[in-house]
Amino acid sequence: MAEIRAFVCGHPIAHSRSPLIHGFWLEQHGIDGSYERLDVAPLDFRGFLDDLRATGYAGGNVTLPHKEAAFSAVDGRDEAAEMIGAVNTLWFESGKLIGGNTDAYGFAAHLSASAPGWADGQTAVVLGAGGAARAIVHAIHKAGYKKICIVNRTLARAQELATRFGKSVSAHNWAEIPALLGRADLVVNTSSLGMTGQPPLDISLVPLPEGAIVSDIVYAPLKTDLLAAAEQRGLKAVDGLGMLLHQAVPGFERWFGVRPDVTDALRSHVLAGGDSA
Which residues, other chains included, contact 46 with Cβ-Cβ below 8 Å and sequence gap of 6+? Predict the structure, then answer.
């Protein structure tokens, strides 16, 4: 049987951790397969997809800046990709190129593993309104939260995102954070604030109720100031690395036919691979 080949493509791509994840699982399960980094410039992306079957790939991952271009180019999409408006996973079904989005799944699976019972909450506050926020809001919405408050410095972007999801999702400006936190069961930072090399995320968690969960999808640094502040308050703090690990599971299963597990050994392997995203 021929080697099964998969990839991650982006521009730039050199610092992607995805090969560490999939390489670990390939070795663990003794699969004759490969998972490669491919730097594909935006102007070349559509041609790359058109040639995908001919080049022998079973599928792959798509990262920045190609997620929205992939959404437009595929023959079909899963529900998550439709709702989020972006594709991060590609595979073939009956000769057609299908696009999915596993970011919402990865976020929810990581929270379920790290903060069991998180889906029982009612009110969430999501900081940021970019592409990552779309996946997070979709995950929280699917979990059944009654109220999701999107906070962004540019209110129009938050309003645009809220409109995608209906009445349970509302848009707010940065000044409203203290009041919103007072009723929050879950707070998620989806912005780049607090990331290595970015400005700090300067908010106080004092208003949060006891038992609230604080999540940051940033994983460089692994423990952001937001998560450190949550721990100081005695709140459950959930880092961003687990989302990256869990979102890789569905793609690996589609390409290589085995559903892998996210383990402490995998986490340690990826952390040892360097600090770049």
Answer: 69, 73
Q: How far apart are CA 216 and CA 229, in angstroms?
A: 12
96 Cβ contact partners less than 8 Å away, ≥ 6 residues apart: 75, 76
Q: How confident is the model at residue 1 (pLDDT cuts 50, 70, 90)?
A: low
pLDDT computed for residue 174 by the predictor: 96
Taking the C-alpha atoms of residue 49 and residue 244, their distance in angstroms, rounded to an integer, is 24
Whether residue 200 is preceded by a cis peptide bond, meaning omega within 30 degrees of 0, is no
pLDDT digits (tens, 9 = 90+) for 120-147: 999 999 999 999 999 999 999 999 999 9
Q: Residue 125 has which token pair? A: 């506050």
How many angstroms from the chain centroid is the CA of residue 143?
Answer: 16
How many CA atoms within 13 Å lie on the side-chain side of 70? 31
Q: Would residue 146 show up in a list of annotated catalytic residues for this protein?
A: no
Active-site residue (options: 67, 96, 142, 236):
67
Percentage of residues of the chain with pLDDT beyond 90: 96
